[in-house]
Design a protein that fits this description.
Keywords: ATP-binding, Nucleotide-binding. This is ATP-binding cassette domain-containing protein. Belongs to the ABC transporter superfamily. GO terms for molecular function: ATP binding. This protein is α/β, with parallel strands linked by helices. The protein has one domain: P-loop containing nucleotide triphosphate hydrolases (Rossmann fold, 3-Layer(aba) Sandwich), CATH 3.40.50.300. It contains 6 helices and 9 strands. The strands form 2 sheets. Strands 6-7-8-3-9 form a 5-stranded parallel sheet, with helices on both faces. Strands 2-1-4-5 form a 4-stranded antiparallel sheet, covered by helices on one side. Helix 6 links the parallel strand 7 and strand 8. The longest helix has 18 residues. The chain is globular. Bound molecules: adenosine-5'-triphosphate.
């Protein structure tokens, strides 16, 4: 998939306060392209999770359309949408969604549970080390802090990355140093893979970057 386009999208269940803001992407045409990098900055309650979940095909509670290349998401079957999640589009949900009773290693490996490949193990170890969670790999997720689980979820998102990587406030529990490390890792993997990255954030990152900035 080469692009995801928002075509006059506006949520059905609330009217965004920022609708009249000329920077806002509601009710406009915006295209996210493979290999490009975006940060969408918007205040609490402005619809970041609503839009991120809509782009994943988790709900259709909006007017307008979301296109995967030229295909309207609303015209796809559940099976087709699920297939897109294997290699084309993936979302790291704001609430992380690790399984409490599995270890951090098992949670990360879930992304590739039916694929045997030494490369995944190499990546898992390298990325865990980069984010400072190597010592937590055999620990159950429920016994880790929120920030530790957030870093584990970021590793999970990168061991078999899709073409469009979407992150909904994925650094919310990280200190500035860890935020920057996580950002650099996501950026590096996305460049290597040719993926697009879409960050949904409350505020801009506290370090310099050259991502395209959009607002809701
Ligand atoms: N299923 C739903 N039905 C009705 N209203 C909803 C539903 N889901 C979200 N909302 C409302 O839509 C608005 C946007 O919510 P959303 O979670 O998308 O915002 P957000 O920008 O991600 O916020 P935050 O930064 O606080 O996580 C909120 O006012 C929320 O209460």
């Amino acid at each position: 998939m080469n692009s995801i386009t928002l075509h006059h999208v506006i949520p059905k269940f609330f009217i965004p306060k920022t609708l009249d803001n000329s920077q806002s992407i509601w009710k406009k045409v915006s295209t996210f392209k493979k290999g490009h990098f975006y940060i969408i900055i918007a205040p609490s309650g402005s619809g970041k999770s609503t839009l991120a979940n809509a782009v994943l095909g988790n709900h259709f509670e909006y007017e307008g359309s979301i296109l995967y290349d030229n295909l309207d998401l609303k015209s796809l079957s559940i099976e087709q949408i699920v297939n897109y999640r294997k290699n084309e589009v993936q979302l790291l949900f704001q609430d992380i969604r690790l399984i409490n009773d599995l270890t951090i290693r098992e949670n990360i490996a879930l992304r590739v549970f039916n694929k045997k490949n030494d490369l995944f193990e190499t990546k898992l170890l390298a990325y865990a080390q980069h984010l400072g969670i190597s010592h937590l790999l055999e620990k159950k997720a429920k016994n880790c802090s929120y920030g530790e689980r957030q870093r584990a979820a970021i590793v999970r998102s990168l061991i078999h990355p899709a073409e469009f990587l979407i992150y909904d406030e994925c650094f919310s529990h990280l200190d500035v140093e860890n935020k920057e490390k996580a950002f650099q890792l996501i950026n590096k993997v996305a460049i290597e893979e040719g993926s697009a990255v879409l960050f949904f954030e409350l505020n801009d990152f506290p370090f310099s970057h050259d991502y395209n900035q959009l607002n809701l």
